[in-house]
Amino acid sequence: MDLIASLQCEDQPGIVHAMTSAVLACGGNIIENQQFTDPSTNTFVMRTRLETSEGLDGAEKSLNEGLSKFNPSLHIRPTAQKPRVLVMVTKESHCLRDLLYLEDLGELNIEIPLVISNQEDLRTLVESHGIKFLYLPVTAETKLSQEAEILKQISDLKIDFVVLARYMQIMSKEFCNKLPGKIINIHHSFLPGFKGAKPYHQAHERGVKIIGASAHFVTSDLDEGPIIEQDVARVNHAHTIEQLVSLGQDTERQVLSRAVRYWAEDRVLLVGATTVVFA
Based on CB atoms within 10 Å of each CB, which residue in 80, 141, 160, 259 is the most buried? Predict the structure, then answer.
């Protein structure tokens, strides 16, 4: 069986030796290994992909016993097990289309059982892929009940993480705090001075030279969660607003899909307010 083990603990001598010994003890072989120590927090993180003849139960027993003295946070799962993703959208379809396309191709190791939206615009697109579409309109009066229904769907469908694929609503602090490290958002964060509506129009008026996007974890602090992936595209005075929007959306979809891929492959580890990404 092919497995991925993700480990996080205080850095100290002997961790890698203990991991290799535990893998060997369960008849395993390490296929890939990446590790990093964050000097500011003295936190050690490691991602290990291994094969074992003793299956998931045997590997969990061996690794937990072999690494217990380090008191680690240890997560082990079969590589073939696809994380289940809830995607949330509003009207813009570029990020959603990319995720659906890559899932269809088998290039994203995820399963999307449900898409939730506060608008009806993307129902046909979602249902054409054989995926359930749930329309949950949101107002100041319905926000709490809407978020309660989202949490119910997450529980009922055994959702592993949530992707806000241009979902144009702010999630409450209570909602964010219930899903720490399990909500990914895409944001035009290279436009920090252009908040509110039509950021690309504002950027065009100010003559920006780069546009970009960041995928980050959602926290109770708006757009300040740990960053997973970023990219930029260079522009100049000759670009029209329409070209800026097109370039920006292209960057957004690529950045989001890479972030989802990294998370789905257990390549993202949270260390305090930052991330370690074994890309």
Answer: 259
Q: Give yes or no for a contact between 5 and 245, defined as CB atoms under 8 angstroms apart.
A: no
Structure tokens that stand for 9 in this block: 């603990």
Bridge partners of 217, per DSSP, are 184
pLDDT in tens, 229-239: 989 999 899 99
- 111 and 11 in a common domain: no
pTM (predicted TM-score): 0.91
- Which pLDDT value is given to residue 191? 40
Determine the structural domain holding residue 69 and report its residue range.
2-78
How would residue 225 be classed by pLDDT, with cut points 50, 70 and 90?
confident
| CA gap 158, 30 in Å, rounded | 30
Same domain membership, residue 161 and residue 130: yes
* Catalytic residue status for 231: no
- Say which amino acid occupies 269: L
**Taking a C-beta distance cutoff of 8 angstroms, is the pair 112, 95 a contact?**
no
pLDDT tens digits, 5-36: 999 999 999 999 999 999 999 999 999 999 99
Statement to judge: residues 114 and 62 lie in one domain:
no
- Counting the structural domains of the chain, the total is 2
CB 70 within 8 A of CB 12: yes
Residue 192 · residue 211 · CB < 8 Å: no
Q: How many CB atoms lie within 10 A of CB 235?
A: 19
Catalytic hit among 223, 231, 250, 266: 223
- Write down which residue in 78, 113, 134 finishes a domain: 78
